[in-house]
């Protein structure tokens, strides 16, 4: 393997609805909201009445992809659903909806629910960001709404995104749709995303790749790990 191959090679893996091709140097791994607030008891997910244990099952698969992507020097983006302490970026309609046991901003077992900087709002230890990785705090479900993510990706020449994270049909799907409208080709790793509702996950995955990939592509992580195993590190200038 040569540096030229690493910088210009277009890698291809089997996916739905057809093969997904990407240049690693122009691709970011986007990890949506793998936060304690969604995955651990006592956080936002549980206040909404969900069984949070379902989501923890994808952590090992996410770790494997993250480790392989980091080993190749690829760009990593982590997102957190997070609001300012004064809730000035939390629409009352979002805070007041439904009948949760605790609302956004209330004090819970891991600090204030969905508030930036609180213990529960951090990314779980197993997938914690490392120096040089992008961390986006987003007040909405989508990673592009009211954030600088698009600009950061454009500055780095990114055209393709590989998505992992939770929950499939809410923040992951919303972010993929936002990415699609901004011109990115996106792949969703099906064993690296989860929902509190398994049938919602299945439907969301199908919606992504339906109609010739109307939102993007879907595939298990094994194919990605295989193609990455054949690559050495990206050149320094392609790192974030
Ligand atoms: C939700 C998310 N489900 N990260 N957030 O409210 O999907």
Number of helices: 10
User: Percent range for helical residues?
Assistant: 25-40%
Q: Terminal Cα separation, in Å?
A: 22 Å
Question: H/E order of the elements?
Answer: HEEEHHHHEHEEEHEHEHEH
Q: Poorly predicted ranges (pLDDT <50, ≥5 residues)?
A: 1-7
What does the model show?
The chain has 240 residues and is an alpha/beta fold. It is 34% helix and 20% strand. It has a six-stranded parallel beta sheet, sandwiched between helices. Helix 9 links the parallel strand 9 and strand 10. The longest helix has 16 residues. The structure holds dicarbonimidic diamide (C5J). Dicarbonimidic diamide binds next to helix 8.
């Amino acid at each position: 393997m040569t540096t030229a191959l690493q910088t210009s090679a277009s890698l291809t893996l089997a996916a739905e609805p057809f093969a997904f091709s990407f240049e690693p140097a122009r691709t970011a791994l986007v990890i949506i909201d793998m936060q304690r607030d969604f995955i651990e008891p006592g956080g936002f997910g549980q206040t909404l009445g969900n069984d949070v244990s379902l989501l923890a099952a994808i952590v090992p698969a996410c770790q494997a992809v993250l480790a392989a992507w980091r080993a190749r020097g690829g760009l990593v983006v982590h997102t957190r659903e997070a609001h300012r302490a004064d809730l000035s970026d939390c629409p009352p309609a979002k805070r007041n909806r439904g009948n949760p046991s605790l609302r956004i901003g209330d004090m819970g077992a891991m600090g204030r629910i969905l508030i930036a900087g609180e213990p529960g709002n951090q990314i779980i230890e197993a997938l914690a960001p490392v120096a040089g990785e992008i961390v986006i705090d987003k007040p909405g479900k989508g990673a592009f709404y009211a954030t600088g993510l698009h600009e950061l990706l454009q500055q780095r020449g990114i055209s393709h995104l590989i998505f992992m994270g939770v929950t499939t049909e809410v923040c992951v799907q919303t972010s993929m749709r936002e990415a699609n409208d901004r011109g990115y080709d996106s792949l969703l790793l099906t064993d690296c995303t989860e929902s509190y509702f398994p049938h919602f996950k299945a439907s969301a995955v199908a919606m992504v790749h339906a109609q010739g990939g109307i939102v993007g592509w879907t595939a298990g992580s094994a194919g990605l790990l295989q193609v990455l195993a054949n690559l050495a590190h990206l050149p320094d200038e392609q790192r974030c």
